[in-house]
Amino acid sequence: MADALPPLIGLIVNPVAGLGGRVGLKGSDGAAVQARALGLGARPRAEERAIQALQALKSPQTPLRLLTFPREMGERAARAANFSPRVIGEISPGRTTAADTEAAARMMQQAGVQLLLFVGGDGTARDIHRAIGESLPVVGVPAGVKMHSAVYAATPRAAGQLAQDFLRGRAQMLQLAEVMDIDEAAFRQGIVSARLYGYLLTPSGPRLLQGPKAASPGSEAEAQAEIAAAVATMLQPGRLYVVGPGTTTRAIFTHLGLPKTLLGVDVLQDGRVIAADVNAPQLERMITETTPAAIIVTPVGGQGFLFGRGNQQISPEILRRIGKERLIIVATRNKINGLRGHPLLIDSGDPEVDALFTGHVRVLTGFRESIIYPLATI
Fold it and tell me: What is the structure's pLDDT at 196?
C-alpha cells in the first residue's frame, strides 16, 4: 500500500496588513490609507512575520505540503523559509485586495487543505470568514494593527507552533474563535466601535492564542485615578515620556490637566504634551540613544499585550534605545486579574528586542501599590 501523503497546509499572506501601524494610522484598510502609510515611510511587515511562522512550523519530524498564492501573497515567504510550495491562483502584483484573499481561501478549501495559515489583521480575518466560514481549521498569524479577533496566535512563532501541534495531534480539539473588527474611520477619531462578524475554527491552544480584547469597565475609573496620581509623582524634569494608548494612560493626562490621544501615542515633557499622536519615524527622530526618555504603557485588557498591539508606533528601535529599566507599566488590579495568571506579552516584531524585555517587571496598580509580574514572548 502506498504511503500516505503528508498533510496539506494552505498559506495566505495579506501583504498590506499592519502597514499603518508604525506610522500611526491605526489601521491599513483601503487603498488611500495604504498609499498614505507608504508615503509616511511605512514598510510592509506581513511577509517577515509569515517567514517567522513558517520557520516555527517547519520540522523534520512532521513533513508537510504547502499550498499558497503567488508572489507577495505567500510564495515569497514560503521560499524564503525554505519550502517548495505549490502555487495556485493569479494576482496583480502590488495591487492585491480583499477579493484576492477571499479567492485564495476558497481555492485552498476546494483543494482540501487540512489547515489554513493566514497572515493579517482583523480585516483579513473577516475576509477569510466571508470566504470559508467555519468549514476548516485556521490559524491566524498576527500582522495587523487593531487585532481584536481571537483567531490569532500571540506571535508568529506561536502560530507556527500551534499549527505544528495540530499536525502532530497535540491540539486536535477545535474551538470557535471570534472574528471582530472595528470602524477604522471612527477609530482614528478615538471612538472604538467593535462588532462581531462571526467565528472561525481554530485549534485549541490557550497558551498560544491571543484571545479577544476586553474593554475596561466603568468601575475602573477610581483605580485609574489612583495610578495617575502615583505616576504624576514619578515624572522627572527634562525627561521625555512616550505614553501609549488606553484609558489608564489617559487618566494620567487627565490628572495633569492635559489632552490625551486615547488611541494614539503622545510625548510628555515638563508637564506639557510636546507631540501628540506620533508615529514611529517621528519618535525615532525625537529620541536618540542619549535622550533622557521613558515609556509609559498599559497592557491590552484580556490579551495582556504590552507591545505589538495598538501601539506599534513604539518601534523596536525605540524600545532598544530607551530600554527595559525605563519602562513604566500601569494596570489596575482588575486588568491584571483578568489575565488569569497568564504573563504580559511582547510582540514588537524584533525577536532580539523581545528577548531584552522579557523577565519580571514591576506593574504599578495603585497609589502605593505595585506587583512584580512576568513579561514573556511566545
Answer: 86
- For residue 339, the cross-strand partners are none
Q: How far apart are CA 172 and CA 174, in angstroms?
A: 6
Strand duo 344-346 + 370-376: pairing? parallel
CA nearest 171: which of 153, 183, 184, 149? 153
15: nearest Cα among 143, 128, 139 = 143
The count of C-alpha atoms lying within 13 angstroms of the C-alpha of 346, restricted to the half-sphere facing its C-beta, is 24
Give dist(CA 36, CA 304) in Å, integer: 30
The residues pairing with 269 across neighbouring beta strands, listed in sequence order, are: 272
Strand, coil or helix: 152: strand
CB 356 within 8 A of CB 307: no
Give residue 9's pLDDT: 97
Strands 138-142 and 240-243: unpaired
Distance CA 271, CA 246 (A): 19
* Per-residue model confidence (pLDDT) at position 189: 57
Q: On the CB side of 150, how many CA atoms lie within 13 Å of its CA?
A: 24
Residue 368: pLDDT band (50, 70, 90) is: confident
Give the pLDDT of residue 360: 95
The pair phi, psi for residue 222, each rounded to 5°, is -65, -45
C-alpha cell at 278: 506620533
pTM (two decimals): 0.76
Sheet with 86-87, strands from edge to edge, namely 86-87, 65-68, 8-13, 115-120, 138-142
Quote the mean pLDDT of the chain.
Answer: 88
